What does this fold into?
Amino acid sequence: MTTLDAANGPIVVSGRISGGQTAYLSKDGAFDVVLAGANTYRGQTWLIAGNLEARTSTALGMRDLEAVGSGTVLYRGTSVTLGPGVVVEEVFLTAGNTLDVASIRVPTGAATLIGLILFTDHLAIGVEARATLDLQCPIDLGYGIATPANLFKRGAGPAILSNGTGSALPNNWFMLRVEAGLLRLGRSGAEHRDNDRQITDPVRTSRADDPDE
It folds into this structure.
């Protein structure tokens, strides 16, 4: 395992990180770690603390989306920032989420996610005013999650769920809450803005400030 500990300051890795399915990368420490290389490692990426910025499409390694144990695991209070122009094919699993931090962030430019996002309780996605996020991947609750959860859209920029939601695993559902900006279901689908909530499976809408919903 390779551990990048940003306890004393930011770390920028511009070289290539390589390795097979057992080549894990761990990010720790409160400061940012930036991955700017064309990485080819195939093991998991673990975010223990702080923020990890992916500046290239393969910053988080090369993935076999069907392989067991592949993908990026975000622990409580951690986040992944996607750089402008990246198209990231990855499985994201968030564990012990906190809504204080957006787990997936796009501060500027256009970013695309392909693969799968699984979350265990709540998930916040932040897209800033000069950014766009195209989620070309299913988003769903993890295995064995029995209670409803919330997917929060934050930031003034648009997020597009172009592959829909709730399509990865059966019998799960969650609420979509738009705290700021725009959330579009499908490239030409319904748009939901500030304080609008979309509930999938079955699909219906209501106000986010309605405590009875």
Summary: Residues 2-207 form one domain.
